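Hey, quick one: can you model this chain's 3D structure?
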Amino acid sequence: MSQPYRTASGGRVDRAKAVRFTFDGKAYEGQAGDTLASALLANGVHLMGRSFKYHRPRGVLGAGAEEPNALVGVSRGRGRYTPNLRATQVEIYEGLVAESQNRWPSLAFDIGEMNNMAPPGLLSAGFYYKTFMGPGTAWKTVYEPMIRKAAGLGVIPKEPDPDHYTHRYAHCDVLVVGAGAAGLAAALAASEGGARVILCDENPEMGGGLLDEPGATVDGKPAVAWAAEAVATLASRPNVTLLTRTQAFGYYAQNFLGLAQRLTEHLAILPAHAPRERMWKVRARQVVLATGAIEQPLVFPDNDRPGIMLAGAARTYLNRYGVKPGERAVVFTVDDTGYAAAVDLAKAGVSIAAIVDVREEPGEAAAHAANAAALRIVTSAVITGTSGRLRVSGVEIGKVGADGSVRPVERVPCDCVLMAGGWVPAVHLFSQSRGKLRYDETRGIYVPGASSPIQAAASAGACNGAFGLAAAIAEGSAAGAAAAGRSAPATTPAVTGEIPPVGGGFRGAVPHHRDPQKVKAFVDFQNDVTAKDIKLAVREGFRSIEHVKRYTTTGMATDQGKTSNMNGLAIAASALEKPVPQVGLTTFRPPYTPVTFGSFAGHSRDHLFDPVRKTATHAWAQAQGAVFEDVGLWKRAWYFPRGAEDMHAAVARECRTVRGSVGIFDASTLGKIEVVGPDAAEFMNRLYTNPWAKLEPGRCRYGLMLNEQGFVMDDGVIGRLAPDRFHVTTTTGGAPRVLAHMEDYLQTEFTDLKVWLTSTTEQWAVIAVQGPNARKVLEPLVEGIDISREAMPHMSVREGRICGAPTRLFRVSFTGELGFEVNVPADYGLAVWEAIWAEGQKHGMAAYGTETMHVLRAEKGYIIVGQETDGTVTPNDLGLDWAIGKAKPDFVGKRSLARPDMLKADRKQLVGLLTVDPAVVLEEGAQITETATPIRGKPALGHVTSSYLSPTRERSIALALLARGRARMGARVYIPMPAGPIEAVVTEPIFHDKDGSRLDG
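Sure thing. Here's the predicted structure for all 1001 residues.
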């Protein structure tokens, strides 16, 4: 028989379909439906990995997401290599290629195992804090390279991932997480009244623990048959969505959950264009958590050898996969589930050498079943050690006396050890939902307590502490009905023939007679954290379990403490001589299990990683030889070189043309928001510093927006089109932030206002025509609008047509020259631009880019939010007190402006700088000091925000934020640079046309 540990019958695998695969280059055969772990066990392979620190041989511990040891890399070729997959969840397929990790040169002979022979204490908890202290020169040359080489488990893929991943948003009335007994019952009860239900489970087949339970019956049917019937019923209901291979990894605010669905990982041949994984982003009205419980290992000397696994996992391998974990087993148990595993294995032909029970008396039903199978029971006993190297070969058993002392009694040969350390509820998602956990002193487990008031969640079944099958189904039915808005389910399935678990199990280190400093009793199997490591952390002063966790790395492995946290907590509590709840509880953070980067990224990769937004004139600018720059997600023309011009020459020409005649600029990327409604003016009054109630339709105003702290958040020109309608412009990068800010206040604070907000950024192409001849260029093209100086003064807006296209024409300027901004629907943008360009050639028009725009606005002292602001700048700092409505009763940020810190005399204020040497252009961001050779450690006075060579002034200019800037007019300051300090004079921040006469042409 090619699979010596495969049972002759039973299990849920397809025995008629053999599947060939390789592990570490050796060929094996399994059956369709196997996981890699179950298939390797069927072939007698227990050694599957190496531990992280000591590189000790490790075998499979569990059968699901809790697995800390059997981590593998799976390769499909062509860049499809995934490290750190749990062999317990990798479904085998024809041609699967898997390899072990963290070993060299081979899994059986690993040089790294020498770490295991290090002297006691050398690699103990926190050794890295104590070892890598000196000499200082050794960190970069010795310690860091060594740590980086040793860090990690699997190998990072070298090639790009050729697969693609998708996202899907979904809403439902009830989301049920977990399709075991409680989850199926909840989904049935919730959906029978028509509620929209999503049921997800991480496994390929729904049923959970029912698939491992051969003895129980539900509604008179075998548990497995009832589960299959329940799934079929749910699948037939149109209001139910069933998601297998789908892990609920995170529970976020307002019943928003993240689900990671594996779509093609289990297939031998990948369908063309099929996504590898799908991330579901689900908003649920109600959530029922039926996430089950996790069996805990026992902490005893040498408890980590291959062949030592959880009893529940062994039962899963036997009843679900038809695989025996060994030929001769010792069951080490603290509750009755160990007996259920022993009885099942004995029926399958596994010799049970002994059931070693920590308790004085097992449960009556459990003892009866074991005695009926003629199994040897040793009570008040513990395992005090194991033997074997690459697989366990025997155990030492000791008897526990009344005083807690342990007396060695015998050695028992075996090839597998099954640990039944009790069960703990999987409360991870409940805790992520901000629910409060409650410690059950009697059973030594944490169970869900009060749910978060901002979430609508209920827990049912084993994750709620209801370990018995009948109780789990009853809780699931009740929770599902309540989630769907009904007082009770129509029916509750009846359960018979179960052997319920008793209590929560044993927590902490098992007593033994051996020298505690010479043995390793593992708590965290992957990170090689032992019981003595945790005790050492306590001795060294750590009191909170969060600190103990970080010092020892307990629970920080890829399994996130699923099999180690509770034992670690109990050991720390014992060492501190405190009750467990007083030591604290580690935080359950998402994701529940690792999620691939691809799932998070979805389609946001390669050319879609940073989407490119182009204006309507992009192709025209390209044809004109424009050089582009990225501004947010937009591609914007930076400058338009002619012939051999470099950027400085092109910008100088563009600036002179705008100042002397006329220029054209694409301003389409400015954010645009339509604010509409009978309360639109009041809404604007509350969001902006300026007054808006008396602004007449057809007029514009500069708008200044503050955040709650009183700091400048955004600005822009705002036109009032009608009493109930405003056209709001924002900075290019600030558009989404401003819209979100508006929506936030409208939906949470200003719910009394009747206002609607619409983003129109992409709907309007904006063409800025600036310069003394701007009016002459537009007059032949504009229809139905008088754009004369008298009819359309500065800061006004009119609606009409241009070149036959509808337009919103603004008389505004960001250059200080006569200016208009032509807004037309984006589809007309290019045609209107070309018409204006053709007319402009009569006046020597030049197209100019963002660099010229920056120079022109700096010459006029116009600020750019994000350049002259850094999140700590107030209107007064910028000299914008005039933009604050003095008579306004309130606006967002107003009260913050009166804080003492906002009124300090030494605040940084916007000023201009002129270098003593006019040819020297300062670097933006450069620090400013009072002296040429500042004292080390003394704070700088401020920094340069904008700096250019001004073609208009024929010299360098700069804007800066400077402490007490307005009081320093005429003073000299210094800008320290590597080549020496640069001297500059503080001036007003306006370098051109201070009286503003050029705005009227």
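One thing worth noting: The longest strand covers residues 165-177.
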